[in-house]
Amino acid sequence: MAQEVKLGDKPDLIKDFPVLSFDDWKKQVEKDLKGESFDKKLITKTYEEINLQPLYTSNDIKDLPQINNFPGFQNYLRGGNVSGYTSRSWEIAQDYNQALPEDLNEALRSDLKRGLNSINIVLDKPTQLGIDADQSKSGEVGKDGLSISGVRKMQVLFKDIDLTNQPINISCGFSALPITLLFTAYANETRTSLMNIKGSITSDPYEYLLTKGDLPISLNQIFDEMKLATELMIKSNSPIKTIGVSGIPFNNAGANAVQELAFVLATAVEYLNEMIERGLKADDVAKRIKFTFGIGSFYFMEVAKLRAARLLWSKILEAYKVKEENQKIFIHGKTSQFNQTYFDPFVNSLRTTTEAFSAIVGGVDSIQTNPYDESFNDSNDFSRRLARNTQIILKEESHLEQVIDPAGGSYFVEKLTDDIANAAWKLFQTIEEKGGMLKAILSGIVQDEIVKISDLKKKDFAKRKSVLVGTNLYANPKEEMLEIKNKDLNAIYKKRVEYIQKYRVNGDNKKHNSILDKLQKIADTKSYELIDIAVDAFLEGASLGEVSKSIRASAEKGISVNPLIQFRLSEMFEELRIASENFKMKTGSKPRVFLATMGPLKQFKGRADFSRAFFEVGGFEIIYPNGFATTDEAVKSAIDSKAQAVVICSTDDTYPELVPPIVKGIKEKSKDVAVILAGYPKDQIEEHKKSGVDDFIYLGADAHLVLSRLLKKIGVSD
Questions:
Q1: What tens digit of pLDDT does each residue of 505-526 get?
Q2: Phi first, then psi: what are they for 118, rounded to 5°?
Q3: At the fourth CATH level, which superfamily is domain 571-713?
Q4: Which of 146, 296, 342, 397 has a 20 to 30 Å separation from 491 between CA atoms?
């Protein structure tokens, strides 16, 4: 009969359970490791040079005073709003690739009925440059976003959309002022007060410079325009933000979290200083800055990065004597394109789910979850809906808005937040000591530092030390390549050119002369007075290109730098897969790999399974037979398979006997067939090379290099 256990009314957990120390735990772990080094085995060094411990305790955070604060109070570590998402949830946003206002209007009206509550408009390059379609060329107009040039098309864009119901966000490159004036003209025409419109119309010249490589006009001109746009919103008592600071170019170039945070802060400080030098107050400017961070897949790192951003920005603004209520940071999170993949693309939706989760836990103000096909296709209604519903499920079904700062108090997250904040602050100070962000960009310091990290990430990815599921590990061999459907840029160009040319000559000569007169006044006016003149010009029918040209009539030439290379980590393996698919189109089959499985199942299975997964990520067809009893059988089957490569799969102990006859037998029959050994027995390598082994595959091998060499050898790629 089982003994009856009796508990008191209130168990004394401290008395009932012994209190163990960290050393007690560590001793037990070291016992489990059976002589392996604790530090080497269990401490992980991140790309941020932060050592992640396997276990965190209260001792790790006992000296962190900032964690004792509350949401909505200075330092804002735990959030800028006292009630968090419980009273004001995050904004659900999406970018759109529609080039024409009428198409974008249709998409927006549909999505606003289905969960979207923040409008994000991305402009194409000509519009960001402040030029009309006929001043550009086919292939650029509408390629990266919306092409728009006048009030009439602004009416089309926002038809049946109440601007006061949701934030309107327009990313303008370096041309916020012309777009702001165009938007203001439209608001005036529709009798909508800017005071009642939320959102942002932002200029971020350093983002444009780092991604495009040049600025066509001087930074002095750009900052003058930024000042006027900001001043317009201040005088209008509008909450619209006018200054953008984006970490996306750093994130998509492979930067680590510390670099992204430090460079973003350094950029923000530089913009703030430029506005103060032009007569604006720090308090007014601080409220007009919108921060954007890329959200990667390292869940806890992203949570900590966002919390650290609030802490450090508050610290910076405190130095400028900005009022406490104006030290709050507005953060827009955008799931990273760096992690997106072309193959197995629906996995992208899983990635953005965890990324959005970390953004919410980190306390962002708005989020964009990228559609699964955004990096290689024009997203459609289905892919946008799937991305949007990711957030809606997290909100409505996972109830993430019910607790404020759910990461607060976590030993790990709090310590990681502090580690990131300290490291980012150190890098930020280094940038300041070198003269600020612009000088660091012009000298190449920013680019060089990011390349160091991106090269490490590429190396780890090539060796499969870091993983993107479906790309460099767990590839789907039965996958069919998705058809890429991109918009007809030539047709868009012709349509926009035809429209703008008619738009410019529309109306009587008197009206046209009035526009020309106003444009000349704009060119002659450098003060705030040009605001009203430019708005009137837009209302009378002036185009974006005409107004921009007038504003910049005396602008000096801009600058050029080495841009940050924006890339997706998966591209290196995608190129291999595409090469294999092209080989199939030419020959009728993918390049084949034959697994020479030697001996009983337990002898070859581990390495054979490894080999299959290794070559599948390169798009190879794998022939995986049962084990062979003799080398002659293996050679015959390998030759009969007409495979371009043979992988010998067995044990290190059996290789000295098996490898020479298999290699000899295959090379005598077909010298072009590559023979590869599964494993890397260090004491046997030279002998196997002498036997004719072409390559070796093993855990930690550079898979991309091996697969590239093989594809080149068999004539699949250059």
A1: 655 567 777 888 888 988 888 8
A2: -150, 120
A3: Cobalamin-binding domain (3.40.50.280)
A4: 342
